[in-house]
Specification:
The structure is a single chain. The chain is of the alpha/beta class. Helix content is 45%, strand content 14%. Helix 9 packs across helix 10. Bound molecules: adenosine monophosphate and zinc ion (ZN). Adenosine monophosphate (AMP) binds next to helix 1 and strand 10.
Length: 485
C-alpha cells in the first residue's frame, strides 16, 4: 500500500507522491522554534511529529532533506532583548543551543539545514523586492512594506487556500503589522517592518530604509532558497495554518507564479491535564521541567508518539508514568530476546529455520510479520495507535514463545532485526546510561561525595530523593550507576 497522508490543502487524505520524477528525493520544511524561551511540551509534540514523518519517509527508502528554520528575530525576542539588556545574538544563541539539545534529548534526528532568519536578510530582501516588482507588495507611509492581498488576487491567485475565508472578511487596503492576527482581521500584512525606537539596535538596511523582516517572509525565503520554489512537504503545529502558512503560500506563489508546497501537514495541539497550557494555570511544562522531575526524553518521546498527530493530545504526568511501564515491558522482552539470540540453537529448534515456520513468521519479522503490519498502519495517514497495537501484540506473542521455550536463536535474532527496523521509525531504542538526566547524575555524584565524608544522613536522603524520582543506585565494577526502578 502506498503512503497516504492528510493534506490540509485539499482537506482530504491523499496518496503521497514525491515531486521528484525518480520518486526518491523529498524536500521537507518544518517551521522551527522562536528562540526566546525553552521549548515546552507542546512544542515538543510538534517536533516529535515532524521527526516521525521524516523517519517514516526514510524507512520507506526516500531521501529526505529536512529544513527547520530558527526564528531569531521577532517582536517577542526584541522585547526580551530589551528587558535583559543583552545583544540579540547572545540572547537567541542561548535558546537556540538549548532547543537543539532538547531535540537530541527527544531523540529527534538532526535537521539537515537549520537556517536562522538573521543570517538570511539578503534573501528575504530579494524576495520582497520580487513582490514589489510584481506590484504585489508596496511601501506604506509608515515606511514598512506590506503584501497587498487585493493585488495578489487580481493577479489571479487565491488567498485562502488552507482556510476558507469569507470574502467579507477581506479588508483590502487595511493593514496589520503584527505577525499574529485573527482570521477576522485579514488585511495586508507586513513583509518588512520599518525601524522604531523600541527595536534598539536590532535593524538592517534595506532598499526601503532600516528595519527588520516580518515573520512569515522568513519561511518563504529560506525554504525556497534551500529546497527550490516548489517542494514536497511543509509541517507545523495547527496554530500556524493561519495566518503564517497562508501568508507563506501567498508570498511564495506571488513571487514565483508557481505552486509552492504539494503537501501540508499540521499537528494538532497538546493540552495539559485537559486545559490549554499556561503559566498562570500552573500547567506549563518545559522539557527541562519534566527531566528535572526524573522523566527521561525517551519516556516523553514515547508518550508524545502514542496519539494520532491530528488528534488533540491530553498530556498528563500519569501518562508519563504509563509510558514508563509500557517501555519497561518492551525492554524486558527485548532483553530476553537478546539472551535467546545469543544461545546456540538446540537440535530440534535448529531444524526449522526462521523462514520455514509459517505460523511463527506472522508473529516475528517475516513478510507478513511485525514490519509489514507496522508499515500498513503507518501508511494509513500515520496511524500510530494501530502501529503500537501491533508492537504490543508482538511483545505478547514473543513473551509466550520465550516462556514455552519454542523460540530458537535464529528466530530470536530475526525478531530483534524486525524490532530494530521499526525502531528506526519509533526512535525509542532501549535504555542506556546516557539517558540518565544530567541533574540526576549530579545527585549521584553528590551522594558519593557525602559518603566519602561519612555524611550518611545526606547520602541516604539523596538516595531517597533519587528513588522518589524513579531511579535506584546500582553498584557496578565501574562504580555506582543509576538504573530505572
Ligand atoms: P513557537 O516556538 O511558538 O514558534 O512554536 C514552535 C512550534 O510549536 C510551532 O510549530 C507551533 O505550532 C508548535 N506549538 C506551539 N504550542 C503548541 C502546543 N500547545 N501543542 C502543539 N504544538 C505547539
Ligand atoms: Zn514558518
Amino acid at each position: 500500500m502506498a503512503l497516504k497522508l492528510f493534506n490540509t490543502l485539499s482537506r482530504s487524505i491523499q496518496d503521497f507522491t514525491p515531486l521528484d520524477p525518480a520518486g526518491k528525493n523529498i524536500g521537507m520544511y518544518c517551521c522551527g522554534p522562536t528562540v526566546y524561551d525553552f521549548a515546552h511540551i507542546g512544542n515538543c509534540r510538534t517536533f516529535v511529529f515532524a521527526d516521525l514523518v521524516r523517519r517514516y519517509l526514510e524507512f520507506k527508502g526516500l531521501a529526505v532533506t529536512l529544513v527547520m528554520n530558527v526564528t531569531d528575530v521577532d517582536d517577542k525576542i526584541i522585547k526580551r532583548v530589551r528587558e535583559t539588556k543583552t545583544s540579540l545574538r547572545e540572547f537567541t544563541g542561548k535558546y537556540e543551543d538549548a532547543f537543539f539539545q532538547d531535540l537530541k534529548t527527544l531523540n529527534c534526528l538532526e535537521p539537515h539545514h537549520k537556517p536562522r532568519a538573521t543570517a538570511h536578510i539578503a534573501d528575504i530582501i530579494a524576495l520582497i523586492e520580487k513582490l514589489v516588482a510584481r506590484g504585489i507588495a508596496y511601501k506604506a507611509a509608515d515606511g514598512s512594506v506590506y503584501f497587498s492581498i487585493e493585488k495578489y488576487q487580481s493577479a489571479g491567485r487565491q488567498y485562502g487556500q488552507l482556510v476558507k475565508l469569507n470574502p467579507d472578511e477581506l479588508r483590502p487596503g487595511e493593514r496589520v503589522k503584527s505577525d499574529e492576527y485573527a482570521k477576522e482581521s485579514v488585511a495586508d500584512f507586513a513583509l518588512w517592518k520599518a525601524r522604531v525606537p523600541e527595536d534598539g539596535d536590532v535593524f538592517w538596511p534595506s532598499p526601503w530604509g532600516e528595519g527588520r523582516p516580518g515573520w512569515h517572509i522568513e519561511c518563504s525565503a529560506m525554504s525556497m532558497k534551500i529546497l527550490g520554489p516548489e517542494f514536497d512537504l511543509h509541517l507545523g503545529g495547527e496554530d500556524l495554518i493561519f495566518p503564517h502558512h497562508e501568508d507563506e503560500i501567498a508570498q511564495s506563489e506571488g513571487a514565483t507564479g508557481q505552486p509552492f508546497v504539494r503537501h501540508w501537514l499540521h499537528g494538532a495541539f497538546l493540552l495539559v491535564e485537559g486545559r490549554k497550557m499556561s503559566k498562570s494555570l500552573g500547567n506549563f511544562f518545559t522539557l527541562r521541567d519534566l527531566l528535572a522531575k526524573g522523566f527521561t526524553g525517551r519516556e516523553i518521546r514515547y508518550l508524545l508518539l502514542t496519539a494520532h498527530y491530528r488528534e488533540t493530545f491530553n498530556f498528563t504526568i500519569d501518562g508519563l508514568h504509563g509510558a514508563r511501564t509500557a517501555l519497561a515491558r518492551i525492554d524486558e522482552c527485548l532483553s530476553k530476546l537478546r539472551e535467546a539470540a545469543g544461545k546456540p540453537n538446540s537440535d530440534s529448534a535448529g531444524t526449522h529455520s526462521f523462514e520455514g515456520r509459517e505460523n511463527a513468521d506472522s508473529e516475528i519479522g517475516a513478510p507478513n510479520g511485525l514490519t509489514a503490519r507496522f508499515t500498513a498502519a503507518l501508511d494509513d495517514d500515520l496511524n500510530i495507535s494501530a502501529a503500537w497495537g501491533e508492537v504490543f501484540k508482538w511483545v505478547t506473542q514473543i513473551n509466550k514463545r520465550l516462556a514455552d521455550n519454542s523460540l530458537n536463536a535464529n528466530e530470536a535474532a530475526a525478531a530483534l532485526a524486525a524490532w530494530n527496523k521499526i525502531d528506526s521509525v519509533l526512535g525509542i531504542g532501549t535504555t542506556s546510561e546516557l539517558e540518565v538526566p544530567t541533574e540526576l547524575n549530579a545527585l549521584l555524584e553528590a551522594r558519593q561525595a557525602a559518603r566519602k565524608t561519612k555524611d550518611f544522613k545526606r547520602a541516604d536522603a539523596i538516595r531517597d530523593e533519587l528513588k522518589s524520582k524513579g531511579w535506584v543506585i546500582e553498584d557496578t565494577p565501574k562504580g555506582p550507576k543509576l538504573k530505572k526502578l
